[in-house]
Amino acid sequence: MSKYVKNLITDYVRDRLQGVNDAVLVNVIGLESNGSMKLRAELRAKNIHLLVVKNSLAARAMAGTPLAPMFDGVNGSAAVCWGSDDIVSLAKEITRLVQTKEYEKVAPRGGVMDGAQLSPAQVEEVSKWPSREEQISILVGQILSPGARLASQLGGPGGALASQISEKAKGSEADEAGTGDVAPGEANQPAGT
């Protein structure tokens, strides 16, 4: 491959991965073309991009970027996956695909998260973390929990007091209804007089 073509490919890879901070490197060698197209379609549906590249050219294109550590010590061809909502969602989807029989030849080779290189085992570990939406829901629950607890504690005694007043009012109405036939002067006299 001529130097001119290598520079073109390097520039293309640099442009495609511009602004990407987290990615997973996967092995797709041995996957047939129909399987590759189906894999790309599944990933595209989840807003995940896949780019098969020669590692030496990708390493040259990514020099000085947060993705550079991903290519350290990797040989041959590999596919760079990036996109989705966050690195956790990306790792979850790649791990899920690897476990299916249809994509048994696909395997994670590593990745990069916040400029730190990830091993294949670390990619699987990251896939077990809560995703961004799950983390936000946990955080919102933790923020709202003390307020909800305080509201229930303040409302609890007030509700009990309101219930007791209501019961007392019903009892008073029953007493008045039961003694309504007696003349007003007789209601205060003791029995037997």
Provide the domain count.
2
CATH 2nd-level architecture of the largest domain: 2-Layer Sandwich
| Structural class computed from helices and strand pairing | alpha+beta
Order of helices and strands: HEHEHEHEEHH
Unreliable stretches = none
Largest beta sheet, briefly? Answer: 5 strands, antiparallel
CATH class annotation of the largest domain: Alpha Beta
CATH topology of the largest domain, anyone?
Answer: Alpha-Beta Plaits
What share of residues is helical? 40-55%
Q: Estimate the strand proportion.
A: 15-25%
How many helices in DSSP terms? Answer: 6
Tell me how many strands there are: 5
Please give the radius of gyration in angstroms.
Answer: 34 Å
Indicate the overall shape: elongated
Q: Determine the CATH superfamily of the largest domain.
A: Ribosomal protein L10, N-terminal RNA-binding domain
- Can you list the strand order of the major beta sheet? 2-3-1-4-5
Mean pLDDT: 84
N-to-C CA distance: 124 Å
Description:
There is one protein chain. The protein has about 190 residues and is an alpha+beta fold. It has 2 domains: about 5-130, 2-Layer Sandwich (Alpha-Beta Plaits); about 130-180. Helices cover about 50% and strands about 15% of the residues. It contains 6 helices and 5 strands. The chain has a 5-stranded antiparallel sheet. A hairpin with a 2-residue loop joins β4 and β5. The model has no long low-confidence stretch (mean pLDDT about 85).
